[in-house]
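Justification of resources, computational component.

The compute hours requested in this renewal are based largely on the per-chain cost of generating structure records like the one below. Each record pairs the submitted sequence with a full C-alpha cell output. That output is archived, and it is also reused by downstream analysis tasks.
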Amino acid sequence: MSVPSSPASSARPPEGFTPTGTIAAHTDRRRVVFATVVGTTVEWYDFFIYAQAAGLVFGALFFAPAGEDFAQIVAFLSVGLSFLFRPLGAFLAGHLGDRYGRRMVLMITLVLMGAATTLVGLLPTYAAIGVAAPILLLFLRILQGISAGGEWGGAVLMAVEHAPKHKRGLFGASPQIGVPLGMLLASGVMAIMTVVAPGDQFLEWGWRVPFLLSIVLILVGHYVRRRVEESPVFAEIAERREHTRMPIVQLFRRHLLLVVIAALVFAGNNAVGYMTTGGYIQGYATNPEGPIGLERGPVLWAAAAASVVWLASTWFAGWVSDRIGRRTTYVIGWIVLLPAIFALFPLVSLASVGTLTLALCLLAVGLGLTYGPQAALYAELFPASIRFSGVSISYAIGAILGGAFAPTIAQAIVQTTGSTTGVTWYLTGMVLLGLIATLLLRDRSGIPLGPDHEAEQAVSPLVGARRG
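The structure output for this chain reads:
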C-alpha cells in the first residue's frame, strides 16, 4: 500500500516507520544536509590541495626534468589528468548508484579519495626516487579523479531527492557549498603551513602536512555519512524492484543530446572556477620570476577569502533559484561573470594583495550564481531510473570540457604570447558557451522526482523538442 505523497498530510507515521516515496522526515533532512556538506567538503579539500600544491611546489619537486619552461605546465597538466578519469568514476558510480543506491557509492568515493590524498603526502620526490615519483603522483591523481567523478552525483541526489519540492535549490546547494568550503579549507591549511614551515621548509616538508591531514577528515566524513538514510526516491525504486538493468545504455540511447547540453552548462562555470581552484592564479601571482611576485601566504589567504564569498553566493543562488527558477538564476550569473573576467587580470596585475582579493571575490560572486542551482537543475533534467548516471556523467564531461585543462591552457597562452589577454578571451568564450547551453534548456523547477512520474521526467527539457 502506497503512502500519500502530500507533505501537508497531518497523519503521523508509527515510530520507526520510514515513509517510502514521500518527503523524508525533517530530522533526517537536516542530517542529510549536514552529511552532504561535510562529505563534499572533505572530498574537495582533498582534490584542491593537490591543485594548490601543483601551482606552488609540484613543478619543482616532481617535474623538474621537464625543464624550467615546461615543469609548471606539466604540473598543471597533472591537475587536468584526473578529469580524464572522472567519466570512468561517473560511469561506475552511475551504474552502482542507479542499481544499488546513492549511499553506498558515497561511502566508497570518500574512502578512495582520502586514501589517494594521504599517500600523496607520503610520496618521495624526484630527487629521491627519480622518475618513479611523478609516475606514482600521476597514479594517485587518477584515483582522485575517479573518486571525484562518482562523488558529486551521489551527494547532490541525496540532498535533492530528500528535499521538499519548493526547496530543492536550497537543499541542492548544500553539497555545492562543499566545494568552496573545500577550497577555503585547502587554502587556509596551505597558508598556515607557509607560516609554520616558511621558505625552503615548505618545499621540504610543509606541503605534505595538508595531504596527511586528509586521513582525519576522512574518518569524520565516514562517520557522518554512515548515519544518513538512503534517498527516498531510490528506496521506492528498490522496493518496487524497478532498477534499470543498464542505466548508462538507456541514458545515451535516449538522452545523449541532453547530456551534452548539460555538460556545456557546467563547462562554462568550471573553466573560470579553475583559475583559482586549479591553482593557476596562485601560481601566477607568486611566481618570483613573473610580473607579480607576491608571497605565498597572503595569496593563499586571498583565495580563502574569495572562497567565503563563493560559498555565500552559491548558497544564495540555490535559495533564489527556488523563487525565480534555475534558468533565470543561471542567466544572471553568466551576466555577472563577464565583467568579473575582464577585471580579473588588470586587478591582479596591480601586484597588491588587496586588489588580488577583490578580483577573486568578484569572480566568486558569478561562480556561485552559476553553481548553486546546478544540483537541482541536473536532478530535474533526468528520469528517476537513470538519474544518477545522468547527473554524474554530465558533470564529468562538463569538467573535462571546462576546468580540466583550463590552468594548462592559461599557462600556455601566457608563455606563448607574454600577455594575459588571450586568457581573458578564452574564459569569455567559455562563459558565452555556458550561457547558450543554459538558454537551450527549459526550466523544470518543481517537476516530480519519484518513479511514479517517470514518463513526465522522460520528456525532453530541450527548447524546441517535442513535449509529448
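Residues 1-24 have pLDDT under 50 and may be disordered. The two ends are 30 Å apart (CA to CA).
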